[in-house]
Amino acid sequence: EDQVTQSPEALRLQEGESSSLNCSYTVSGLRGLFWYRQDPGKGPEFLFTLYSAGEEKEKERLKATLTKKESFLHITAPKPEDSATYLCAGGYGGSQGNLIFGKGTKLSVKP
Amino acid sequence: ETGVTQSPTHLIKTRGQQVTLRCSSQSGHNTVSWYQQALGQGPQFIFQYYREEENGRGNFPPRFSGLQFPNYSSELNVNALELDDSALYLCASSQDRGDSPLHFGNGTRLTVT
Asked: Quick check: A38 pLDDT over 80?
């Protein structure tokens, strides 16, 4: 069965304390691994797409990496405004809108 | 650039009723997808529309149906509402390119009592 699992479910960091979020996936015919950020009461906001093992992408304090079974979202020196739920999703099948999402990691960054 | 807009933002319905949710795609996007997000869960794929035809569907019963209009706006219809249909319904649009990511609206919060 295709599935995406994220860990931890929740993560509390002090401002400046770097860490990583994990996303493991078993998606047959994966056509892309996606990271989104979701703030309370809002829709998910696109961050990155990764297509092949070894690929890395960066945006400000965030860096996403991909292996054959996992993806990591590294957060370097986080700030309180990085607090959000981070969602990982695997794309599969012929329809590009078809993503399998994990349950997300809720990140809280305290000043 | 206009983003994805959804209406209404909140809705309360009674079990057994029918509901229609609306979505306007982001400018330049011709593909629309709908997702259901229960509290504390990740979004679940309902279906996708391209050129006014459904071209992908998740594990949802036929009482979930949709439409896409020539201006790429879309509707999600749910018949015979059940209590478990209470959720945030998200619309996402994209271009018809394999590398085009989904851009989500802020959703409609549906409560079924």
From this structure: yes
**DSSP annotation of B97:** S
CA A27/CA A13 separation, integer angstroms:
30
- The confidence score (pLDDT) of residue A94 equals 63
- Residues of A at the B interface, defined by Cβ within 8 angstroms: 4, 31-32, 34, 36, 41-46, 49, 87, 89, 93-104
Which DSSP string corresponds to A9-64? SEEEEETT--EEEEEEEE-TT---EEEEEE-TTS--EEEEEE-STT-EEEETTEEE
Q: Residue A101 and residue B43: Cβ atoms within 8 Å?
A: yes
C-beta neighbour count of B36 within 10 angstroms: 23
Q: Is there a contact between B56 and A97 if contact means CB atoms under 8 Å apart?
A: yes
pLDDT in tens, B7-42: 999 999 999 999 999 999 988 888 999 999 999 999
Contact call for residues A35 and A73 (beta carbons, < 8 A): yes
A14/A54 Cα distance (integer angstroms): 29
Per-residue confidence at B109, pLDDT binned at 50, 70, 90? Answer: very high
Q: Please name every residue paired with B77 in a beta bridge, in sequence order, or none if there are none.
A: B20, B65
Q: What would you report as the CA-atom Rg of chain B, rounded to the nearest whole angstrom? A: 13
Q: Which of A41, A49, A87 sits opposite B101 (nearest CB)?
A: A49
Give the span between the Cα atoms of A81 and A92, in whole angstroms.
32
